[in-house]
Amino acid sequence: xxxxxxxxxxxxxxxxxxxxxxxxxxxxxxxxxxxxxxxxxxxxxxxxxxxxxxxxxxxxxxxxxxxxxxxxxxxxxxxxxxxxxxxxxxxxxxxxxxxxxxxxxxxxxxxxxxxxxxxxxxxxxxxxxxxxxxxxxxxxxxxxxxxx
Length: 148
Prior knowledge:
The protein has 148 residues and is of the alpha+beta class. It has a single domain, classed as Nucleoside Triphosphate Pyrophosphohydrolase (Alpha-Beta Complex), CATH 3.90.79.10. It is built from four helices and seven strands. The strands form two sheets. Strands 1, 2, 3 and 6 form a four-stranded antiparallel β-sheet that branches. Strands 5-4-7 form a three-stranded antiparallel β-sheet. The longest helix is centred in the last third of the chain and has 15 residues, at 119-133. The chain is globular and about 40 Å long.
């Protein structure tokens, strides 16, 4: 999730709650980007719109981020492939689910790269910056959804 402001492009990060950290990560808390799963019968864009609406965010466009990475997901005890997408919205307060996240921040890329410590997240943010947010006009063929 990103927004374009007079100060430049800002990306949304979420900080893991104590409850979620204790439940799934041996108490480890960390910054992450919004994420979710595609439900049966949903398209990718429908899933992204649904997930971001949970945070009270109105998505204006979605692009393919041209990146994916593998992780071991402790919650499901399995290896998973994570696809990266870039969703644009206006900078706004975020509605957090306290059992999942305790804080949010809209930050420039360099600050995001300092806060996240998983390589897949860092590489995904860099890919979005290269293909979508770091260019004056993202490639039309990467645009999956645009709200007119």
